[in-house]
Write a structure and sequence with these properties.
It is globular, with a radius of gyration of 16 Å. The chain contains nine helices and no strands. It folds into two domains: 44 residues, no CATH class; 132 residues, AhpD-like (Up-down Bundle). Helix 1 runs antiparallel to helix 2 and helix 5 runs parallel beside helix 9. Helix content is 75%, strand content 0%. With 179 residues, the protein is mainly alpha-helical.
């Protein structure tokens, strides 16, 4: 079927963009193109990044993916952050929770993501910092980024395609990407 071939080509293009394989998306496409379209709506929830600064947006995505403990998802987020200009040192700080070296605003992004996505708690102080720094629209986009990046690994895990994070390996990969 031509639509299936087109969808496979688009998935392969995304794999090149993200730097990881998307076996589970191929499975969805093979099963039902209508379900693939629904998945794409969920996936598009994350993009585009227009309201928050690039580092804030990608820190939110990284922390969201890390909380979902999917190694290839975190690797994809590292690749995207690197392609958008985040340096390896900042990515490493986010991976290791070394927020003290981040600006107050970027530390607040990571802190809010950890509270909301990982611990299912609120952090009014971090939210106030983000709202002040990036406005309501920036805060909302950061919220989408952290929660969307945590959601996708759940779909992957439910289909049997998730891999556990090995942050040591991912940190090494992140450091070599910019060199």
């Amino acid at each position: 079927m031509i639509l299936t071939r087109i969808s496979r080509a688009l998935i392969r293009r995304s794999e090149r963009q993200f730097g990881v394989k998307f076996e589970y998306i191929h499975e969805i496409a093979q099963t039902d193109l209508g379900l693939l379209l629904r998945y794409n709506k969920v996936f598009s929830f994350l993009d585009p990044n227009k309201k928050a600064p690039i580092p804030a947006y990608h820190i939110a995505r990284l922390r969201g993916a890390i909380t979902a403990d999917c190694g290839t998802c975190v690797e994809a987020e590292i690749n995207l952050a690197t392609r958008k200009g985040m340096d390896a040192e900042m990515i490493d700080q986010v991976l290791t929770r070394d927020y003290a070296k981040l600006s107050k605003e970027l530390a607040a992004v990571a802190t809010l993501a950890d509270a909301v996505v990982e611990r299912r708690e609120d952090d009014p102080t971090a939210r106030a910092i983000l709202r002040s720094a990036y406005g309501d629209a920036g805060l909302i986009e950061i919220c989408y980024a952290m929660n969307g990046a945590a959601l996708l690994p759940g779909v992957k895990r439910a289909l049997g395609h998730a891999t556990s994070c090995d942050l040591g390996i991912l940190r090494k990969q992140a450091k070599t990407r910019k060199q």
